[in-house]
Amino acid sequence: MSTLELTGSKRGALIVFEGCDRAGKSTQTEKLVKYLNEHGFTAVKGKFPARSIEPLGPIIDNYLKNEVELCDRAIHFLLSANLWEQESYLKNVILSGKTLVMDRYAYTGVAYLTAKGLDLNWCKSSYIGLPLPDIVFYMDVSLKEAEKRDGFGSERFDKREIQEKARSVYSSLKGPEWEILDGRQSIDELHENIAKMSLEVIQKCGTTPLQDLWKNS
């Protein structure tokens, strides 16, 4: 019997936004958190990587800004450790009945380091056992469109070759909990659809236990 069944409490949902760079993930994360908090739910924003969490976050931040050099395996382990550092906090938020909305999650770490040449399953193995999202909103934007948006090219992975490869890896990571969204839609149109699906997920998952990510991979 799960903790939820024993206590009779309802957990919150784990909602994740994923996609390549400049797809609109951060904008929709902010809008959804604001919407939920204004409509009777308690929602908390999370971000991966968590660049401010020491000691690993600032190192990752410097790497992504091209201020330090690290080999691909080293940054892979730093990224996965950065998310594992947050695991207890993430679970506590969800099990306390709050909905956690993540701007990127484990899929990002796998997609980009696989795009850099590491083995897909090897990358996934470092994230096995983290909470499985209740829904993943994948913001589907073409590279041509992303390149037009403000800020593209400012960080290490903002390169056409890496973005194209990461997009392909994302396709192989999609599971039944994924919803593919057309990033060409307006911000408000996307938000309306996201809010509707999020409310449905929150209602459905309340009494179900958290599952583990890639447990049977």
From TrEMBL:
The EC designation for this entry is 2.7.4.9
Residues covered by the Thymidylate kinase-like domain = 17-194
Keyword terms of this UniProt record = ATP-binding, Kinase, Nucleotide biosynthesis, Nucleotide-binding, Transferase
Coiled-coil annotation reads: none
* Statement: the UniProt record of this protein carries the keyword Nucleotidyltransferase: no
Q: Name one GO biological process term.
A: dTDP biosynthetic process
* Group of enzyme by EC: transferase
Which pathway is this protein assigned to?
Answer: Pyrimidine metabolism; dTTP biosynthesis
Q: Which GO terms describe its molecular function?
A: ATP binding; dTMP kinase activity; nucleoside diphosphate kinase activity
Top-level lineage group: Eukaryota
A Pfam family that the UniProt record links to this protein: Thymidylate_kin
Which CDD domains does the record match to this protein? TMPK (cd01672)
Gene Ontology CC terms: cytosol; mitochondrion; nucleus
Does Secreted appear among the keywords? no
The family assignment reads: Belongs to the thymidylate kinase family.
Q: Which NCBIfam families match?
A: DTMP_kinase (TIGR00041)
By its UniProt entry, which HAMAP family does this protein fall under?
Thymidylate_kinase (MF_00165)
Task: State what protein this is by name.
Answer: Thymidylate kinase
Which species?
Gigaspora margarita
